[in-house]
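Note to self: keep these together.
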Amino acid sequence: MWRHGRPRPCLLIVHSSQTFFSIFGDHAGMEHKHAYRRKLPHYQWIGKTYFITFATDDRRVLTPHSRQLVLDTCLKGSGKRYQLRAVVVMPDHVHLILTPLDDGTGPISLPEILQEIKSVSAHRINKYLGRKGRLWQEESFDRAMRETENTRGRIEYILGNPVRAGLVRNPYDYTWLWTESTGEGARASKSSY
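Structure:
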């Protein structure tokens, strides 16, 4: 939190009776809408881009149409709650690179963003499959990109994921991949729901 003797602006997620409080500048004491359980305290740096990974419960394999529903859900939220840089929906997990946006009262928290993506996609997939129950693991991994960290390197990691898994030879042949620079990967449909 400290750099060259000065505090860096950040959002600190603190658990207290299923609410969150942001601690920074003019937004001190602001409550967030969604409760999100984590095993450790979570820091969200203002204006940073994040590399996020979340997986299906019990590493359940998603059907091709289910993967499309997840991709469409991620694309639908871009520009509203976050700026999506890249996403790949693998058979049992998802990688995202995104930057949270500001909603007028402060930055939208990662827990709120992930809760929306997971909830909407799970409801749509369960409806499609005619089932009920949990789809995603509760925990997810997120990492703020450092100033010195190469965002392009993380995007290349996302591009290489379906290739390393043996699903395609060329990453752009993988249907459930989207990058900001190409707007594809990309036969990603931006269907509305």
